[in-house]
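The material for today's practical consists of a large collection of protein records. There is nothing in a record beyond a sequence line and a structure line. Backbone structure tokens are a discrete shorthand for how the chain folds in space. Nothing more is needed to start thinking about how sequence determines fold. As an example, a complete record with its sequence and its structure tokens follows.
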Amino acid sequence: MSVMSGLSVSPVLFKAACPDCRCRFELTAGALRLAIGASRRTTFYSFTCPECGSAVRKPAGERIVELLTGGGVRTLRLHTTA
């Protein structure tokens, strides 16, 4: 929990689901990674399922990118070489 000027601030939680074990859970921004590529195919977010340990990668459209970056998820910008 972060404390700012005497006020407590709850961490942002994101709802997620694992396609392997089908568990649903909430993750903090620190548990997610966002990769922004040059196209929709190369823009995705990823996390490790806290239930089964599977590495999960899901596509991220514009709205998901906005929500994740606004919530403090670490972002990697992918660049292509010409």
Remarks:
- DSSP finds one helix and eight strands in the chain.
- Residues 62-70 form the longest helix (9 residues).
- The radius of gyration is 14 Å.
- The mean pLDDT is 88.
